[in-house]
Amino acid sequence: MNSFENLKVVINQYLTESEVAQIEKAYQLAEFAHRTQLRQSGEPYITHPVAVAELLADMRMDPPTIMAAILHDVVEDTTISHDDLVATVGEEVAKLVDGVTKLTQIDYENYAHAQAENFRKMIMAMASDIRVILIKLADRLHNMRTIDALPLAKRKRKSLETLEIFAPIANRLGMHAFRVELEDLGFKALYPMRYRILKSAVLKARGNRKAVVELISEQIRTGLKKMNIAHAKLSGREKHVYSIYKKMHDKHLSFSEIMDVYGFRIIVDKVDTCYRVVGVLHSLFKPIIQRFKDYIAIPKANGYQSLHTTLFGPYGVPIEVQIRTDEMHRTAENGIAAHWLYKSEKTYNDPRSRTQQWLHGILEMDKSSKNSLEFIENVKTELFPDEVYVFTPKGKIIELPAKATPVDYAYAIHSDIGNTCVAAKLDKRLLPLSTPLVSGQQVEIITAPNARPNPAWLNFVATGKAKSKIKHFLKKQQREESVQLGKRLVEKALHPFAIHLEQLNDAVLQSAVLNIQAGTLAQLYEDVGIGNRPAQLVAQQIAKVADKTMRKESHDQTPPLLIKGTEGLVMRYALCCRPIPGDPIAGLIDVGYGIEVHILSCPHIIPYHEDAERYVTLSWEAQTEGDFSVDLELDLVNRRGSLAALAFSISTTDSNIEHIRAQESDKHHFNVDITIAVRNRAHLARIVRKIRTCKDVIRVQRHRPSVS
């Protein structure tokens, strides 16, 4: 009997004769293509694609999916081409196979880049047809079942990939059975010793728990019978090995603490019966109220529905019970695959439509990511197993991952709302944007037209979409700022040649760009602005093209570059000397970042005065904007209330304390280092005068940097 016969038995149960004949035709093509190939185990290669097809047939997938599963390796590993597939089995099947096929024709820097690009390709194909990922998950599951034949290094790599990417995707699609097996197989291959010890401990604990499980089961059955709840199927529910390991590892629990919990599942016929069962359980055992979760009214993002309750059982043992209908159980086990044959029966909770929404967000992430590695990291962030459910002011439910913040919520509503949010109200209370959201909260976002994303948001956002959108905006903003700064630096560098940019026509500038090999004029300015190209060399090239003299007379003075404090990410103020408007200043071009501004006398910039490529003279514009940080050093009498008096005096000068550190110098005095926000030197002088009026202040002066 060939390897197709077992598959044929399964597909005959739900497909027509003509559909089975189509699948057999695909099998014959695959068998011919793989005829000379063997697996690492020594088995004929064809056994693998047929086993993958069997997994999908068990979920009652449609004929094109089964055919694509059988043929999923022929383009990648044999001489069969995509066009051959189109001619033999049709465009639909060929497209599914292409979605699963790796990118083998491109050379990548390393394995990580190659895998990231292959994963990105798979996700893009998955977004257009969800069946691609179902085939890939079945392929990975069978590969994990037979992973022992692979070399150790490859086993470890595949196992880690399975735990980090494929198991979370199965979970996100609601495919519980696939997720559990992928996790256990990945854990077994990655940490074989830990797996064996835990597996043995679980089997031993199962025997010790038998009497308690039977007692609880009998009490539940009796209670259900008294309330005339028939057709309820009660079963014990055991945690799988990997979930036990994760709980022990993440929550620092012992094995006995986890196994102390007894899990049960009750499957009934109707939704209202689920709630009646909860009533029975709560009358039998005392419930832990905060541990009751209604995933029927508010389903999980992957379509999972069930009621969860935790109870104090006999002898005080905790009991966890899940209550669901037969249909909910099928969805919980097979997720989106459970609904594949029922395309007409769509509900508000249909996993297919919810999955499409998730995939749409993934596509947006791809557009905002600079490369495949960043994209894959953002997608990993999206594969959180836990969710919070919050409400919009109009009552719509928004699903977000655990630890999500109002900023994540804002980006989930719309990218423009995320980019312009300035504050958030949680249950009508104004709270910081970094506040973690809690299920059930009503969230209202306050926006401002001129607001922009803050780089600090990247420290607390939880969703891949928010991270990618913030990074994308900041990169775009930095690019625009770099172009503007670069143009000003080139204009300044052209002064010795008596050339002004506005005097030059497009032909001259484009010719200079061509000579410098900078791509475009904007790219050239950007390179200068972030310090990747010296402005002087660019000016020389432009001067050559403009046919102007490059001789500089001794009395020529290059005017300083004017800054006004609003240049953004490409202009940074040195922390060593903290320049403020009114200080004489100079700049140091920091390759890849832009200009770092120092006070002219700062010892960290003095060594660069003769470095024409990095040193740039600067001056403040007459109208500067914003607050600037400055460091002060003080000596204070060690007396109760002296620090409070100091803080009060500063607050009366329209300034703000950003940082303060006090240290005892002796029994009666202490030194204070304080960072305050000022507008300019005049503002600083007014603050210092005010500080000196405090009776406990002995000395106050601005911090001056030193070179160690």
SSE topology sketch:
Elements: H1 4-11, H2 17-33, H3 47-58, H4 63-70, H5 74-77, H6 82-89, H7 91-100, H8 111-128, H9 131-145, H10 152-172, H11 176-190, H12 192-226, E1 233-236, H13 241-251, H14 255-259, E2 262-268, H15 271-284, E3 286-287, E4 293-294, E5 307-312, E6 318-325, H16 326-334, H17 351-368, H18 372-382, E7 387-391, E8 397-401, H19 406-413, H20 415-420, E9 421-426, E10 429-431, E11 443-447, H21 464-493, H22 506-516, H23 521-529, H24 535-545, E12 561-563, E13 571-573, E14 585-590, E15 594-599, E16 615-620, E17 628-637, H25 642-651, E18 656-664, E19 669-678, H26 681-692, E20 697-702
Parallel strand pairs: 2-6, 12-16, 13-15
Antiparallel strand pairs: 1-2, 3-5, 4-5, 5-6, 7-8, 9-10, 9-11, 14-15, 14-16, 17-19, 17-20, 18-19
Helix pairs in contact: 1-3, 2-4, 3-4, 3-9, 4-7, 4-9, 6-7, 7-8, 7-9, 8-17, 8-18, 9-11, 10-11, 11-12, 12-13, 12-15, 17-18, 17-21, 18-21, 21-23, 21-24, 22-24
Q: Which residues form runs of ≥5 with pLDDT under 50?
A: 103-109, 341-349, 548-556
- Count helical runs: 26
How much is the average pLDDT? 81
Total beta strands: 20
Q: Sheet bearing the most strands, described?
A: 6 strands, mixed
Estimated structural class? alpha+beta
Beta-strand content estimate: 15-25%
| N-to-C CA distance | 82 Å
Percentage of helical residues?
A: 40-55%
> What is the 3D shape?
globular
Radius of gyration: 34 Å
